[in-house]
Amino acid sequence: MRIVIAEDNVLLSSGLELLLTARGFHVAAIAQDAPGFIDAVDEHRPDLTIVDVRLPPSFRDEGIHAALQARRRHPGLPVLVLSQYVEQQYAGELISDERGGVGYLLKDRVSRVSEFVDALRRVAAGGTVMDPEVIAQLLTRSARDPIAGLTPRERQVLALMAEGKDNTTIAARLVITENAVHKHIGNIFAKLGLSPTDRGHRRVLAVLTYLSHR
């Protein structure tokens, strides 16, 4: 099984490589940043990827952005995200993509070697593996935040709506078509539970919901 790893911490990436090699996996490449990871995936077409959420240069969410980009370029690509933190917004988008295996584990789970290896095999086989802490935080946020279920793109569209931008301006700002904007807005209305009978007010209600949960 070929694996590509995205991890900038040399000690951790070396440890992962030793652990995986000893258990019969083949580490095809280790990337230290998002562009290197994308290039490695394109080159090696791995059976599984392991991605740290926070990569250079800003150490915010480059890793999970790269994982989402890789899955768009290679639909069904199995991705196991490792993180010290729960990035709720992007974790939700990754989980909602049903094409291929996906996992999200906190880094302290790696020390439980047998469980970690089992998780790798399950994700590579198309399954889903979620850290209990990730699930707990996602459920907690969803219960109190009605915009938590929006994708990052839908949140961008809603943020621009809150700035008073019309669909044409939003399309130009995000470099997408107006039809795409219209579709995103329809999804936003549906996810926020705004009825079509409130046709004249849904845009205002969506913006008010966004502003009250920023």
Automatic annotation (TrEMBL):
Can you tell which superkingdom this protein's organism belongs to?
Bacteria
- Residue ranges annotated as coiled coil are none
**Record-level GO BP terms:** phosphorelay signal transduction system; regulation of DNA-templated transcription
CDD domains tied to this protein: LuxR_C_like (cd06170), REC_NarL-like (cd17535)
Q: Which residues carry this modification: 4-aspartylphosphate?
A: D52
Task: Give UniProt keywords alphabetically.
Answer: DNA-binding, Phosphoprotein, Transcription, Transcription regulation
Q: Where is the HTH luxR-type domain?
A: 143-214
Matching InterPro entries, A to Z?
CheY-like_superfamily, NreC/VraR/RcsB-like_REC, Sig_transdc_resp-reg_C-effctor, Sig_transdc_resp-reg_receiver, Tscrpt_reg_LuxR_C, WalR-like
**What would you give as a GO molecular function for this chain, any one?**
DNA binding
Q: Outline the extent of the Response regulatory domain.
A: 2-122
- Which protein, by its recorded name, is this? DNA-binding response regulator
